[in-house]
């Protein structure tokens, strides 16, 4: 079985290494020469030229998706890759999209680019570089397929061959939605922690002590409030969800909360820390 990993960034490189260690013939493709050189140093055959990529049995798409004008989903990198694969694929080819996309993307690619002539699944990655052992390529993941034949092929490849535990969903759109929903939820959790920190410090309480106290309750887990919500995925994916539902109130408020928290952090060092306590403030109220 020949496997091609398209996109050798953080997720794609880890995927290629995992598949290589399983004993398969792996080839990588990326438009970045630096990504190619890094992959080669780790023993992966890779090229910046698509013409050099041999026809494969499985294509794993791990390219990054983007935002247009800071708010609109840009999944064009996935479409570009799909067009390349379509030139050399056939009905026996399994194509797996691991990139983050919005619902409807996989089906559109299947119909307009592959014209139904491949087996297509969406297995969104959950890779976290902070703990690649527990949250790396091999962890409990979701799989959705365009049809039953695709699902069978996807289960055989991921579950039976790569030994990756899977949660099967009823449609490929559910799999697409779950990834951006997961990250939007995480964003909201962090934004709550950020706002709570601002509230606590404004009334003279130690946020960390309050957080630890709250987290002693069995169904509460308030996250840390650090330096604002950064990275590539969370800020992008929450906007993907808002794009699907522009009337969202909570998600937009979370973005605004993070924005204000960042401003608060910037101005905090220039202000005199609050010396009052919650008791002092309450006394002023009554």
Question: Could you please describe the fold and organization of this structure?
Answer:
This protein is of the alpha/beta class and 286 residues long. The protein folds into 2 domains: 2-170, Rossmann fold, CATH 3.40.50; 178-285, NAD(P)-binding Rossmann-like Domain (Rossmann fold), CATH 3.40.50.720. 46% of the residues lie in helices and 14% in strands. It has helices at 10-21, 33-41, 76-86, 105-112, 148-161, 172-202, 207-214, 233-244, 250-268, 278-285; strands at residues 2-6, 25-29, 45-47, 58-61, 66-68, 72-74, 94-97, 119-122, 141-145, 166-168. The strands form 2 sheets. An 8-stranded mixed β-sheet has the order 3-2-1-4-7-8-9-10, with helices on both faces. Strands 5-6 form a two-stranded antiparallel ribbon. α6 (172-202) crosses α7, α6 packs across α8 and α6 (172-202) crosses α9 (250-268). The longest helix is centred in the middle third of the chain and has 31 residues, at 172-202.
In short:
This protein is α/β, with parallel strands linked by helices. The protein is 46% helix and 14% strand. The relative contact order is 0.10.
In the CATH scheme, the class of the largest domain would be Alpha Beta
* Count of helix runs: 10
**How many domains make up the coordinates?**
2
CATH architecture of the largest domain: 3-Layer(aba) Sandwich
In this structure, how is the largest beta sheet organized? Answer: 8 strands, mixed
Order of helices and strands: EHEHEEEEHEHEEHEHHHHH
Query: How many distinct beta strands?
Result: 10
SSE-based structural type: alpha/beta
Q: What is the overall silhouette?
A: elongated
């Amino acid at each position: 079985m020949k496997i091609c990993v398209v996109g050798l960034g953080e997720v794609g490189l880890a995927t290629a290494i995992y598949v290589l260690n399983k004993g398969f013939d792996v080839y990588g493709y990326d438009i970045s020469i630096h990504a190619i050189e890094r992959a080669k140093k780790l023993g992966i055959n890779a090229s910046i030229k698509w013409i050099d990529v041999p026809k494969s049995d499985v294509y794993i798409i791990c390219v990054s998706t983007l935002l247009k004008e800071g708010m609109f989903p840009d999944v064009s990198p996935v479409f570009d890759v799909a067009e390349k694969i379509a030139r050399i694929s056939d009905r026996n080819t399994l194509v797996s999209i691991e990139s983050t996309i919005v619902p409807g993307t996989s089906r559109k690619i299947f119909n307009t680019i592959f014209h139904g002539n491949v087996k297509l699944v969406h297995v969104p990655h959950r890779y976290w570089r902070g703990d690649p052992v527990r949250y790396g390529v091999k962890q409990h993941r979701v799989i959705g397929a365009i049809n039953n034949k695709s699902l069978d092929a996807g289960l055989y490849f991921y579950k039976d061959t790569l030994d990756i535990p899977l949660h099967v969903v009823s449609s490929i759109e559910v799999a697409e939605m779950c990834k951006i929903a997961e990250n939007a939820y995480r964003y909201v959790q962090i934004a709550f922690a950020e706002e709570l920190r601002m509230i606590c410090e404004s009334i003279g309480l130690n946020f960390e002590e309050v957080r630890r106290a709250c987290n002693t309750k069995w169904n509460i887990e308030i996250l840390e409030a650090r330096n604002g919500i950064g990275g590539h995925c969370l800020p992008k994916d929450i906007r993907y969800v808002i794009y699907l539902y522009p009337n969202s109130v909570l998600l937009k408020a979370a973005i605004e909360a993070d924005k204000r928290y960042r401003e608060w952090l910037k101005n905090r060092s220039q202000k005199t820390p609050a010396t009052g306590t919650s008791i002092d403030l309450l006394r002023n109220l009554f």
